[in-house]
Design goal:
The protein has 339 residues and is of the alpha+beta class. It has three domains: 153 residues, no CATH class; 48 residues, no CATH class; 102 residues, no CATH class. 36% of the residues lie in helices and 24% in strands. The protein is built from twelve helices and twelve strands. The protein is elongated, with a radius of gyration of 24 Å. The two termini are 41 Å apart.
Length: 339
């Protein structure tokens, strides 16, 4: 799984607090950080400049018109990174409607959406992708606790922020439980986000930003709905060996008409694996034999234990139209139908 982090002088332009990411790159910070501190640690506090585009020959010399002036490509612009030391890096060519929004500005807007300021220590990760043409960060929104007086299952909540300086990747804020630590996790977070706000880098971006809070409803709505659904599943008893467990598994992984011996064997193997996951410490052993544990057992199978390579598993989880995503919704509905 490629991380796509920019590497400068052997150092990844990435900083994080808490758990070490899978790629084991970047600068480790002590706890959540303020915006300025994290941008500096990730070397993400650079300035992006919008310039005109001139025609050059194969040797890099300007092509001149009859008056000796460089020929300008009028319907194109370029984004360039100012490194602050007198050097610059080309990022991309963009359209004439493109407007630059600095990484810091995009982050300040995101912090305002969640009711924080750049002086609040709420930033969990921050990174630069694809040679500086893209940027991402994770704002920690606090942990969602399912049944605090009972099983006390804790689910992380984040706002994943991403923006591009390439004319392709828009500004995106995504309300998700996936922590962004690389390009693939940014995409995964966007795909699995409960709510996403998107704004293009055009002149109307300021107007669009005004709608971000309503689009995301970060404060309570999503968390309340998810918590209610989870606790509804938690309240449904599903004893080991019960008909209720059989009913959910058979609904999500049904026998096919004219099923072959091979298909029957595969289905029986899935059935056995889901049952084994149901009793482990991540599910029934710690959280009881109930609908919430059934749901998480099947999701664990779909995301991690199917017979496929890691890349295919990750892509299926990232795709909100995939068979895997549909199966997760089927599982939730099948569990809730037990009532």
């Amino acid at each position: 799984m490629a991380h796509d982090l920019e590497i400068t002088n052997g150092q990844a332009r990435f900083a994080y607090s808490g758990e070490i990411p899978w790629h084991r790159l970047g600068k480790k910070m002590q706890g959540l950080q303020t915006l300025d501190a994290m941008l500096e640690a990730a070397q993400a506090d650079y300035e992006v400049i919008l310039t005109k585009v001139a025609a050059v020959d194969d040797e890099g010399n300007f092509i001149l018109d009859k008056n000796g002036n460089a020929i300008i490509i009028e319907d194109s612009r370029a984004t360039i990174r100012n490194n602050g030391d007198g050097t610059y890096n080309p990022l991309a060519t963009v359209g004439t409607r493109y407007e630059v929004r600095q990484n810091s500005e995009v982050m300040e807007r995101a912090l305002a959406v969640v009711g924080a300021t750049k002086g609040d220590a709420v930033i969990d990760t921050c990174g630069v992708l694809r040679g500086g043409s893209r940027f991402f960060s994770t704002i920690d929104l606090g942990t969602l606790v399912i049944d605090p007086m009972g099983v006390n299952d804790r689910i992380a909540r984040y706002l994943v922020v991403s923006t591009g300086h390439d004319g392709i990747w828009p500004i995106r804020y995504a309300n998700t439980d996936i922590r962004a630590v690389c390009n693939n996790t940014v995409i995964m977070g966007l795909k699995q986000a409960q709510r996403t706000f998107t704004a293009r880098h055009t002149r109307n971006v300021d107007t669009a930003f005004q709608d971000a809070n309503e689009a995301l409803r970060i404060s309570v709505e999503w968390a309340k709905q998810f918590k209610e659904t989870a606790e509804s599943m938690l309240a449904i008893p599903v004893p080991l060996g019960s008909a209720a467990l059989d009913k959910v598994i058979d609904k999500v992984f049904p026998a096919k008409k004219d099923e072959t011996d091979r298909q029957r064997k595969n289905r029986n193997e899935i059935n056995a694996l889901v049952r084994a996951l149901y009793v482990n410490e991540r599910n029934g052993k710690n959280y009881g034999f109930n609908g919430w544990s059934v749901y998480n057992s099947i999701v664990e199978y779909l995301d991690h234990h199917r017979t496929d390579d890691k890349k295919a598993l990750a892509e299926a989880s990232m795709d909100d139209n995939s068979w895997v995503t549909r199966k997760k919704l089927e599982t939730q509905n099948a569990v809730l139908a037990l009532v």
